[in-house]
Design brief:
Helix content: 55-70%
Radius of gyration: 35 Å
CATH topology of the largest domain: ABC transporter transmembrane region fold
Number of strands: 10
Number of helices: 20
CATH superfamily of the largest domain: ABC transporter type 1, transmembrane domain
CATH architecture of the largest domain: Up-down Bundle
Shape: elongated
Distance between the termini: 80 Å
Order of helices and strands: HHHHHHHHHHHHEEEHEEHEHHHHEHEHEE
Strand content: 5-15%
Largest sheet: 6 strands, mixed
CATH class of the largest domain: Mainly Alpha
Length: 602
């Protein structure tokens, strides 16, 4: 049993070597660009922190004044000489007047407390404003950054994992730059102001207080290095939990149809238990660290009491000095403990900084500000497409496409057919620049697509995808998603061409009907026809149809074939299909087999 306990303790105190790279404190400067626009709020909060810290540092001194100069009626000359040494001669008369009236002194203290309360309220309001604005700035910038990542990133990274970073980690950042930073500054200023006063009151005590700082720093370093590693693992586990929730809810129909609810609950519970274990270990380390600091506080407090008692008994300090010294040391150790405890708790924040920094420094698909000016935007696409020696693989071994060569003339309709997994959709992804081929070149209108602006290129291409995605919005907004400025007449016309208008009108709200999550209130065929209407209204220069009629009955397919003929007029079109009936509307067919492409004309 003792061996088990010892091994458990060793595991808790072990430093985790899990960080993918070392995040340095200077890297936090990267995030200050999100705080810079809020300089007015920061300035007000900063000034309020200085005001509150300076007045709070005078509280123990007020006890000395009350005891020495009011109760024991000590000579005012000591205060006068102190104010003169601080070049505050203007305060001598007002202070002397106050000390001669206890009633007036208490009234001034009460009014000062009210004013300080007002300052504290202003500080809290500024911090609240900072929290919300920082969250807005960071989440918006992060969301934009993530949307610019290449498709390959989303193919290998679970959506739930990304969501945990956009939400949970950003919340930690806002607290870091607001309440945590305010707490650190408050403790720092209080420490500085208090040390100036203590040096005047009791020089020996100031030396002892300074000696405590390295000891606190070492304890903080020892525990923080261990807590940070466990925090990193915990955050990663939380991302895994978010991924599990997202996958489970997305596949809820499969889970219920296979009656596997209990199995999914057990899997989820196992992952939750792991995060709870890490939370306990972090809490254990924090508790031990706080206990060490409390022991040091107790020992040093007893030393200070002994020292000050000896000094008072020897008449080297007054009773007021004794009281003020004890109070200052009590406040000092509390603030010092609070400062280093905050640094300790910030280790989990540093993990969030690292995870967000990793996303912000990730390689994006394109960067408008730095690269787009060097890429071409020819105007309109004529529609000539040429593949020269294209080879592509998703992994290091085993090409999906190998030495593919063919061309498509402007206005030509080409069908891509073949068995599943032979590279038809991959070829489309290469045209859209979702992936870059390992060898060869793709030309559109005799321009290498590597030299074409990515956003411009995609804006000229209309797509009806095999995986139909419908937004949780109205039917009207889903149809005009690719052309938000389209009129209602254009929306209706596109719906009629896609043979979905009549069915839309059967809904109570018509085009204002909210479809629901992923179009759950519509049939697969209805979702596919809305997707086709979306392509019609965009009026693209180049059209790509990926199994556009795979979910339609034969009668509806025949009607849509006529609409497709209309929308394909005078524009190059690529149709991925397994249906020979749909391939009949093409001018040529590209057969995919064994990583090669064979061209056949009708």
């Amino acid at each position: 049993m003792s061996k088990m306990k010892w091994s458990y303790l060793k595991k808790i105190f072990r430093r985790e070597d899990t960080l993918t790279y070392t995040f340095k404190f200077r890297d936090i400067l990267f995030f200050f660009k999100f705080v810079r626009p809020l300089v007015a709020y920061i300035f007000i909060a900063f000034v309020s922190i200085i005001i509150l810290s300076s007045f709070n540092s005078l509280i123990p001194l007020s006890g000395k004044v009350l005891i020495d100069f009011i109760i024991f009626d000590r000579d005012f000359g000591v205060i006068e000489s102190t104010l003169t040494s601080l070049h505050l001669e203007l305060l001598i008369s007002p202070v002397q007047y106050l000390l001669n009236s206890v009633d007036l002194l208490l009234i001034v203290i009460f009014v000062t407390a009210l004013l300080l309360g007002t300052v504290k309220t202003i500080q809290n309001i500024m911090i609240l404003q900072l929290q919300q604005q920082i969250t807005l700035n960071v989440q918006t910038a992060l969301f934009e950054q993530i949307l610019r990542f290449p498709i390959s990133y989303f193919k290998k990274t679970p959506v739930g994992y990304v969501m945990s970073r956009v939400t949970g980690d950003v919340q930690v950042i806002q607290n870091m730059f607001t309440r945590n930073m305010a707490s650190i500054l408050t403790n720092t200023f209080y420490f500085l102001f208090s040390m100036l006063i203590i040096c005047k009151l009791n020089e020996k005590m100031s030396y002892l207080m300074l000696c405590m700082i390295p000891l606190y720093a070492w304890i903080n370093w020892f525990f923080s290095t261990r807590i940070r590693g466990k925090s990193y693992i915990q955050r990663e586990k939380q991302g895994d939990i978010s991924k599990t929730i997202q996958e489970t809810l997305s596949g809820i129909e499969v889970i219920k149809s296979h009656v596997t609810e209990e199995r999914e609950v057990r899997k989820f519970a196992d992952k939750i238990k792991e995060t709870h274990r890490l939370n306990i270990e972090q809490g254990f380390l924090s508790a031990i660290s706080n206990n060490f600091m409390r022991i040091i506080n107790l020992a040093s407090t007893l030393v200070i009491i002994w020292l000050c008692t000896k000094e008072a008994m020897n008449k080297n300090i007054t009773i007021g000095d004794f009281s003020a010294s004890i109070l200052y040391f009590h406040y000092f150790t509390g603030r010092l403990n609070g400062f280093f405890s905050m640094i300790l708790s910030l280790q989990s924040n540093m993990v969030s900084f690292q995870r967000l920094y990793e996303l912000f420094k990730g390689v994006t698909e394109f960067d408008d500000h730095r690269h787009s000016k060097n890429l071409e935007k020819p105007g309109e696409i004529v529609g000539k497409i040429r593949f020269e020696g294209i080879s592509f693989s998703y992994v290091e071994e085993g090409n999906v496409l190998e030495d593919v060569n063919f061309s498509i003339e402007p206005g030509e309709v080409v069908a891509l057919t073949g068995a599943s997994g032979v590279g038809k959709t991959t070829l489309i992804n290469l045209i859209l620049k979702f992936f870059i081929p390992q060898s060869g070149h793709i030309y559109i209108d005799d321009i290498d697509i590597g030299n074409l602006d990515t956003k411009w290129l995609r804006s000229k291409i209309g797509i009806v995808g095999q995986d139909i995605f419908i937004f949780n919005d109205t039917i009207e907004n889903n149809i005009k998603y690719g052309n938000p400025s389209a009129t209602m007449d254009e929306v209706i016309n596109a719906a009629k061409k896609a043979h979905i208008h009549q069915e839309i009108m059967t809904f109570k709200e018509g085009y204002d009907t909210v479809i629901g999550e992923r179009g759950g209130t519509l049939s697969i065929g209805q979702r596919q026809r809305i997707s086709i209407a979306r392509a019609f209204i965009r009026n693209p220069s180049l059209l790509i149809l990926d199994e556009p009629t795979s979910s339609l009955d034969v009668e509806t397919e025949n009607r849509i074939k006529e609409s497709l003929r209309e929308v394909m007029k005078n524009r190059s079109t690529l149709i991925i299909t397994h249906r020979l009936t749909l391939a009949e509307i093409a001018d040529r067919v590209l057969f995919f087999k064994d990583r090669k492409v064979e061209v056949k004309s009708f």
